[in-house]
Amino acid sequence: MMEELVRMVRITKRFSNVVANDSIDFTLYRGEVHGLLGENGAGKSTLMNILYGLYKPDDGEIYVEGRRVYINSPKDAIRLGIGRVPQLPELVESLTVAENLTVLLPGLHASSGLDYILEVARRYGISLDFDAIVYHLSFGEKHKIELIKGIVRGSKILILDEPTTMLSPWEVNSLFDCISKMRDEGRGIVFVSHRIPEVLRIADRITVLRRGRCVASVTRNEVDEHELVRLMIGTDIDRHTVRDRVELGEEVLRVEDLHVLDDMGGEAVRGVNFYVRRGEIFGIAGVAGNGQRELVEAITGLRDVSRGRILIKGEELSSPRRFRLYGSHIPDERIGLGLLPSFTVLDNIALTFYKNFSNNGFIKFNELKLHTERLVETYDVVTPSLGTLAGKLSGGNIARLILARELSSDKDLIVAVHPTFGLDIASTNKVRKLLLELRRKSAVLLVSEDLEEILQLSDRIAVMYGGRFVDIVEADEADPEKIGLMMSGVMGS
Amino acid sequence: MDYITEFIAMMISASTAILLAALGEIYAERSGVLNLGVEGMMAVGATIAFYATLSTGNIIIGLLSASISGMLLSLIHGFISITIRSNQVISGLALSMMGLGISSLIGRNLIGTPLRNSLGIIEVALLSDIPVIGAFFRQNALTFFSYILTAILWYILFKTKIGIAIRMVGDNPKSADSLGINVYTVRYRCTLLGGALAGLAGAYLSVAYTPTWIEGMTAGQGWIALALTVFSAWNPLYALIGSYLFGGIRILQFRLQPLGLSPPLLSTLPYLFTIISLALLNIEKIRWRIGAPQHLGKPYHREEA
Q1: From the list A94, A104, A110, which residue is nearest B179 (CB)?
Q2: Which CATH number does the domain A251-487 belong to among 3.30.70.20, 3.30.70.3270, 3.90.550.10, 3.40.50.300?
Q3: What's the complex ipTM?
Q4: What is the rounded average pLDDT of the residues A467-478?
Q5: Mutation for A interface: B152, B175, B290, B296, most A CBs within 10 A
Q6: With an 8 Å Cβ cutoff, are A94 and B160 in contact?
Q7: Does the structural domain A4-233 have CATH classification 3.40.50.720?
Q8: Vertex B12, ends B8 and B13: CA angle to 5°?
Q9: What's the domain count of chain B?
Q10: Phi-psi region of A125 (alpha: psi -120 to 50; beta: other; left: phi over 0)
Q11: What is the pTM of this model?
């Protein structure tokens, strides 16, 4: 008989008018990895934030080791032996690695407890420079610190929230080794993810959430990939998009020996050469933090070039305005760079279109409204009205609103960064089809960490690692495994 | 006593008030609470200390009541900025004006009253005879206390977990919260400490530096303390050095006047230094190294991103 660690009963949580968790039951046993599967917005993080004391449930009961508990803060959760590894590192960047970790442990002096931390790190095969300031670390290293934090606090229960999001395949393997070790020690581990293959690889039991409800709770052997897809999204959707041949046109974007500095003055892009022609999607694959962000910012005119040239339609790029003349930009930072949350839906659309709808400086609102209504409909943006503040929309609708604005303006160059991040499968397919369609008349530069997306859409693929292109390959000759290895820096061209 | 030693002694005693106030503000700001009410808390502290000492004849009671009055005022600011999560700048400015008003109101009848007992100069045997350095050992008790306090507050902030917790709360409250640190408690405690020290700084002016009460006797020293907080990069040790620099400038205003240097021009120097240090702080590299509190002035609410 398996020993019950956590039982969450009929958990309900509402945010204003959205029901994030609708009477969810969840049970975790000792010595198991429990996959909590669902699409973005299905309510996984909310449920786990309730277990960790970050959110208060509106309704429902929580039992830990059979005892009814009230978890009002992370402090309470930690006392119950619950640890959590957040999706994105929540570290204090100005402190050292050691300071970030020792504060968890008893003792007054700043370094007391460091020996214990070192022992934990050694036991789980995690190596770190404890004197380094967190700010200087890579994403993978920061994630390791969070993992140690989780292990130290979560003596019984450990929540891993989308732990593989930004890790290279290499780092994922060592994470999984670590998880297995903890399972063998008798901890209960919740593995929150929307990545079916990973859940199937590591989980013993799987709970699937859809739109705030629990739709299934099964053991690993009862299900296969197709069944999980069906549970997760409700219907079977063919994820394959057929890429047809498009005639190649002239060169729209040319980048020559480009060097770009990051915020700290270090060289983030170190000599990149490529071109994108009308009629093709040029995909840049790579793990975040390898210079993609700086490269895109340089191409869109948002960051200075330290050496080299960027030519758009043969003209040297000098400002964001220049880029805007010929280009559209779908940024990964949707709120802020993509749209203004305190502006209405209509105003956000007007940001790029006001010139088309103005008369001697006065905006012709009626025409603009009609245009916006059409866009909102075409791109399936669900909004109460055009006067709703953009920041009030859900993540998926915010993404669609940006796409509506950027893709409807018929530019020669489209720069899309993680365009489907956080979207559900149906919207993802729609965006992908749209990009394929758009390449008939435009040149498309696609930057994504989702290798599947890159492989599916791109005509040519560049792999970026450490600020350089490891290789540029034709899509037909691309070998996914080889690209994966190049992304993690294990293999050169 | 030679000229230089005498100058340094004067410089130190002119600096103690801004040092005490800045030490408190460093803790408040390290925890993320910007309290612009220092001037007001100092003014009330000065008045209460004078009044309490005058009526009880006991300086300790005077100092304690000044600290408590500073704490009470900072509690208002804490409630507005931590619990209600309102705008800290406005609340702090209001506190400053309110403090100055309260101090004038209470102090109306104190003008011109002499204080019979005030904090006298203590000379440490032998040490006070050393040239130059001796100046540090020929001061009143509160100034001696400020040396010790600087060392203690520096040690706590950088060498203990209490300090790490405070810096975490000011830098990334979400992270601190998920580690099980109570963001609100830490912020309240730091704000109250800031209030207590601002009150004590005011008391220093009215019962030690110039044992008398006049309206507006803080004369902008609270604002200089705020400038010093930034200038010192939120580090108690640098605040000690910076306070002597700023205090030295104050003394120089009187010394250099006969030479034709305009005192108002010299009195702008602390602010000029602060602007320079702010400009330097905006260089991101330096900002990170120093650890300027990233969430300074921003309220924290758990269920909001």
Answers
A1: A104
A2: 3.40.50.300
A3: 0.78
A4: 89
A5: B175
A6: no
A7: no
A8: 120
A9: 1
A10: left
A11: 0.75
